[in-house]
Amino acid sequence: MFVHLTSTANAPRVRRSGIRPDSRGQDGVRGVYCFPVLPSYTLTHQWLRELARFGTRGGLVAVHVRLADDQPVLAGHYRDRAKDAQRLMPAAEAVRRIGALPDPRGWEVFLPRAVGAREIHRIRTAPQVTGWRYLPNAHGTRPCTCAGCRIRGEYGSRRLRERRPHPLDGPPPPVRVLLARIDAAGTPGDPAELRAALHWFSLRRRGPLERLAHLAAHPVPAVRQELVWAVCGWSTPGVRDLLTALAADPDRDVREAAEAALED
After folding, report:
1. Do residues 6 and 121 share a domain?
2. Which of 104, 188, 208, 245 is deepest in the core (most CB within 10 A)?
3. Which stretches does the entry tag as region Disordered (predicted)?
């Protein structure tokens, strides 16, 4: 038995037609995230507070899913996902391994398909204060307030930013200053300097796309990936064409970043 957490507003649809494979797992595979039902209620629903940070519609409910013992699933710690270290195994083996861990916090199971309506065992409410936030053992650790970690609209986020402003929050330097830094970085350009300048461009709504497009051919993948995040929020004409070209990049991280930007 597994538990999948979803917004309360999705409960009628889940009862009627199951769970859609809206999530992306390792290697970009679409499917459904879930977690085994363990003797500990807190561990079973450990992801609730972390998922609630990203917004819900009416809170979260627990969907109990019954899978066949031999159903292939991916299991591992959430940090293993980025390293392609999650392993494919039968569902019964995933339950056994996670249940035997001394600390299963942060572990997840990914079902690489949709969940049918007949596989839904029941849907029940869950306390909205169960589990960890940010990462396991984060309690007592000062949260990061950078643009990549914080979530706009999260409870207490404005007060946290006012109390702990991040040095990269802005306001960004003028465009001419940033372009001068990129020109001064040389050819093909120092990756650290280019990434720092591109970060500031990501805080703008529009920008000189024609002056940055050449970075799509930079030999360092991290620069090309930073270019994706820099321009993906712009309303400047030509951004989508650039992202489409980067979606065919030979580096997987760059491709995934461009594909994610195109989907938004």
Report:
1. yes
2. 104
3. 1-25
